[in-house]
Description:
By secondary structure, the chain is mostly helical. Helix content is about 65%, strand content about 0%. It has five helices and no strands. The longest helix is centred in the middle third of the chain and has 46 residues, at about 50-95. The protein is rod-shaped.
Amino acid sequence: MLCNSGQPRQPRESEKKGKPMNPLEQDELFENLQGFLKTKGIELKDGSYVQTVRKSCGLLSDAINVGQSGLNKARAKIDRKLDQLRQVIHEKTAPPSTPPRPSKSASREDSPEKKRREGRSAARKSKSRKRA
């Protein structure tokens, strides 16, 4: 984004986090404009010109609020579609599921190797008993 000087501007905190903007009050823009002009030495007095500026600021506030709500709805819809897309990609790229294998301890209990070991240890115990 560029600011008025043509230099890139830093994004605001609300833009970084993606928080929705609070809706503008009807006279909020006019009051801010009036305060800004007062700091520059210009005072707005009641009259037809000021009423027109006030109405214009009200219309601009309404347009900003409607546009912001439309953007929030679009953002929500895009987020849902992105989640669906991520899910499809995950399903297509995930490794195929395999049936669960029996645990190693269960397969060793019935193995012939284990039976041989048990036979050897029993024979060693009986030999050590005979010596004693």
